[in-house]
TrEMBL record:
Disordered: annotated span: 18-41
Record gene name: LOC107417437
Protein name as catalogued: Actin-related protein 8 isoform X1
CDD domains reported for this sequence: ASKHA_NBD_AtArp8-like (cd13396), F-box_AtARP8-like (cd22156)
UniProt xrefs under InterPro entries: Actin, ATPase_NBD, F-box-like_dom_sf, F-box_dom
Domain of life, source organism: Eukaryota
Transmembrane segments: none
Boundaries of every F-box domain copy: 44-90
Family: Belongs to the actin family.
One family name in Pfam for this protein: F-box-like
Amino acid sequence: MATLLLKKVWESVSNRSSISNSNSQRRHRSSHDDSSSSSFSSSIGAFDQIPSDILMQILRLLGPKEAAKMSVVCKLWKSLVSDDRLWIFFLQNRQDQHDSFDSIIFAETYLRSGAPLQALSGQLTEFSMMGIYGQRMLVPGSVIIDGGSGYCKFGWSKYACPSGRSATFLEFGNIESPMYSRLRQFFATIYSSRMQVKPSSQPVVLSIPICHYDDTEAAKASRRQLKEAIYTTLFDMNVPAVCAINQAILALYAARRTSGIVVNIGFQVTSIVPILNGKVMRKVGVEVVGLGALKLTGFLRELMQKNNLNFESLYTVRTLKENLCYVAADYEAELCKDTKASFKSGEGWFTLSKERFQTGEILFQPQIAGVRAMGLPQAVALCMDHCHAAELTGDDTWFKTIVLSGGTACLPGLAGRLEKELHELCSPSLSSGITVVPPPYGTDTAWFGAKFISNLSTFPRNWCMTKKQFRRKSRANLIW
Ligand SMILES: Nc1ncnc2c1ncn2[C@@H]1O[C@H](COP(=O)(O)OP(=O)(O)OP(=O)(O)O)[C@@H](O)[C@H]1O
């Protein structure tokens, strides 16, 4: 049936092409033919009888390449082909890109302009979906590297997920050597050993760590130095274009937001980062809690030793943490329940009970693990207070979405418990509308934020810096 329809369409197209050819020849011969030319362009011959939704279905079956060709046949086909719904369908069904339609629409609506994000219109209506589809097809593949302080995730922008992960310290080499040579070794290893690609072949999108938290001149200088070192290293390796963005901003984009508070539970510390329109609000203040993934693993190890659960490797403890641990909705109530569960690691079967939720509880009650630090809800509430006091916008909605990121944030129950405690802690005016979003792409959340950017129709133009631009740019522009 489909073949028959396509055959008919093709005949109609050939007919129309020859008619419009002879028509245009006639027009060349005589300039008095306007009426006949307009009647040709608004008719599609035998297909005039077919309802437009069926014609649209035919175009869907033809696929994007052939459908685009149809637009040159006549005005009617052109208007059918330029219908946004057709290209939304093609965008939704692109096999090679793996980006969800919602993420494509978010990115094309809010991130097209590049950083700094332009005042948000929130509208895509001024762009044609056909144009966006065409531009996205032309975007070159890029390498994405999220060099976390514990684990590095790397891969291709056109792939569904990172192609690999490795322990960052292994790639960096001697900690004593200068920053430039450590970065050089890091990138060289990722390019040549891990991904086996030439640095000069494609742009790179890089997540840069949330570090040097303050808004002081010294912190700004350190951030500038790090960013300069990253760009210098990559351009020395002949990478054609570089886009380096803060890890927390990327996590926020992955959650399809441009404003909010990102809570990144990192390898060693947890950072609470307020972001407005894609920019870290350092003036408002980044809160840092001295608790991270390492501490949780260490605490579970202590609990297991105390409870005579014998293991050989710390890797086993980490595996148990990732597979059995969770955050209790109500800690005291959980202590009274039977919470036994078992998991088979490389060393055999292990059964944990209270350890399962006591491990994650240290994020809420750090003193359990002997850590003198604020609990996570208190630190987030403090950040919200600072955002409120700063009066950066007419209302408080921009910081009421809290996006979790980092592997530890994948602990089941964490988002719900944090949201519950924030509602209890904040004043009624602040607490209404607070939403805590679990890491949208688990451990790889920042990597996916980078993927959204690298598949944008305006990439690399609006997001990357070339070597030439880097040389010309003043140092002040490198602060992020
Ligand atoms: N489902 C899970 N539950 C609990 N912990 C997890 C889970 N998945 C991963 N992790 C932990 O997350 C940690 C790694 O997190 P992540 O990859 O975010 O670190 P990172 O990016 O190196 O940190 P940083 O943000 O400091 O750069 C590991 O300790 C791992 O055990």
